[in-house]
Automatic annotation (TrEMBL):
Pfam families: P-loop_TraG (PF19044). The keyword Transport does not apply. Keywords: Membrane, Transmembrane, Transmembrane helix. Residues 454-746 form the TraG P-loop domain. This is TraE. The chain crosses the membrane at residues 21-47, 53-72, 79-94.
Amino acid sequence: MENNSKIITKKASRVRFTVSNALGGIGWPELFIIFVAVVLITCSLTLLAKLSLLAGVITTVIVAIFTIFLISPNKNGEKLYYMIFIAFGFLFKRKKHNIENTSNIQIINNRVVFDNKQALIYKISAVDLTLSTQEERNTPIYDFSNYLRALNFDFEIIKIDSKLNFDKNKNYLTQTLKQDSLKNSQTQQLNNFLSMSKYLENQDLKLEQNYYLIVFKNNNDKKLELSLLSYNQHLSLTLPTSEEIKKIVDKKIIPTNTTKSSLATLIKETSTYLKMDNNKFVSYLTVNQFPLTVNDMWLSNFSEIENVNISIRVRHLDNITAFKLLDRAIRRAQDQETKKASEDIEYSLYLQNFNELLQLIQVGGETLKMVSIIFTCFADSKKELDQVVSNLKNEMIRNRFTINDLTFRQFEIYKCLLFNNNDKLKNIEQEMAAITLASAWPFPSKPLNDPQGLIMGENEQLQPVIFDIKTKSSTRASHNAFIVGQMGFGKTFNVKKQLNWLYCNNTKIYIIDPQREYGSFANYHGGEIIEFGNNPKAKINPLEIFTDNFPEHISLLEQWFKNLYSDLTNIDLAKLQEYIIQLYKNFKITAATNLSKLTPKDYPILNDLYNLVYQKEKNTLLEKMLWKLTKGADGVLFNGVSTLEIKSDLIVFDIYNMAKSKTISNAQMYLLLALLDRVMKKNKEDNLNLPPEQQSWICIAIDEAHLLINEDNLLALNYLFTLSKTCRKFNGILYILTQSIGDFTQHGENVKRQARGIIEQCTYQFIHHLNSIGLQNYTELLTDNNMINAYEKNIILTPRKGLCLFSINDKRYILQFIATSEEIKAIGTQEDINNLGKKI
């Protein structure tokens, strides 16, 4: 994937005049040490020279070497005299400390009050940029940069790991199991889902990373709070619950991943780590020097390391201070004299960046922040802690960061991180432009964890993906899913798994099945299989009205006849409309009629229409068309009272033997979709007086949707498009499946336009394996906002069973399906088991 490098300036305080550069800078402490050395040398030469000139020279050399040794920096850039000083301090200090007393910390709303100070805490929700292109990343990062520039106070961004929480999922399943109306098959599946949640809860799953913003303010500033909570589509802040804040405070005091652990009361301090008296081990590290350039999301790799919390402390610099800092750094960089070409180039780049940054700050286009990044490594044993620290150091080295392991300062750092916001971190701060800080974008991919969802499988980080298609939110408007993929790679398994879950959760299921793949699923749950298309017991009368809008029905009926018999002229259609309206009047059906009280027998049939037309249109095209529909070959399909009844809450419409003529099959499919649309609307009426948790849902699954396509007859496809737009209003769920995506792109612009419209109405898309031609056809149907990048295309092109790219609008997951043996019993066929991918 493309990346856009950002320059991190050399720490301004480390840009020094050439004279002091080799010694890492000379300040008052260094001058004092040099002064003492000069005094010692003078005394030694004065006293020892009388005894032995050689002794005086040797003493002078030793003092000089020792002085240079003391004021020279170590690998972390820290002076050795300073390290010796803190080492002596550590040697004689008390090594055991009491754990911070949480009773001194109050939690009020989202505020943590301590030592007459307060910190505001907000939970950060950010889009996942892991699979994004450079163009997709630019806008969120620049928006975040603008947000950071506006924060003219000190703040902290922290990452805290926690175990995935299955409580809401378990509670929902427990309540659902209490329903009296459940079938045995539903009870078995629900118990299986509950067992699966409990099983995963006890597994060593990858941890969930949560990010929080902590603002250090001493006053109750409502205006500030409103500005912080201002909505941004890429990154937003929400108020955590008091329970969440308590967990944050607890994990700052004792970093841990376990939800329950014995209470620690003491900390034993060593030079490189802390040991709690409940056998928890903690070690702090920081960044000593950043690389010259960093890529977008430069902190995200560190976010993925388990058992490592991250604290990004940010101190605001006013423009005057920033100007002074940069002016001094620019002057010193200009005066640098180096003996290496590489150093000349490096300082030239720093100088260029200092100048650009200074100009941006002057025109208000940038701000400078003082940033310190502290990594908190923790584990349940010293051996495990060493491994965590090693993982972090390896990642830092790989990304060209130099490490400071904060030797002898572990407890001081521990205290600094407890909301104290003191100045003890200044010596590890780094100047950083807001855009560079924003480009860190540490927010990793969060696992999808819908509280009332189905455990679909796992993402690339091996975290469970828990999905509820019924979820309603500002970013998840519809309940439609588009599923595409070649045969044999899990497309049907995917939808069966979801339908099995929905049927156990108060949802009526209606499946249009062209290949007889859903019969075993219906049989398992005691559903009904209806052969549709050439079955006199499953006939739909085209003159039966399925909509509440009488004029709309007349218009659609006219279009139905036109698509069935394209030779009809506009004059024929106008006459036909008159006859139809007259026929309805003869049966006392008008726009004012309460259609809900009519039964199928109350409607006229095509034979009644033929008799009316025959009286005035004998031997005309219109009369011959109606003769074919009533007494001819098509009469058995369309002429008669509707015999198809929707009684079961799980019906598979077997259309395997539907007419091979696309014109006839499209006419039949339109009638079936219209009937199901009426069932969906009737379901809404039944739900009106019920609380949301008791309302039932309707799910329509259309497999092999490409069979609806007829370039010369768009009636069924148009109706599917209308259904995709309106079903969300009626607690409706729509699944559209296809393996022949090319049929949507290679039958003219009208078909492609309608197909693109249908896909746009699908909040959820599951893209299983496609070949290069299929992938090209699929991308032709996507809008610019939903285009997939090179990495995602490679996933789709790689033939792996049970794997797909799962997208929720612009959020994407690599999803590997998993299932239990009990689920497979419901799903049924050997092909499904082969296409599963992973079984638990």
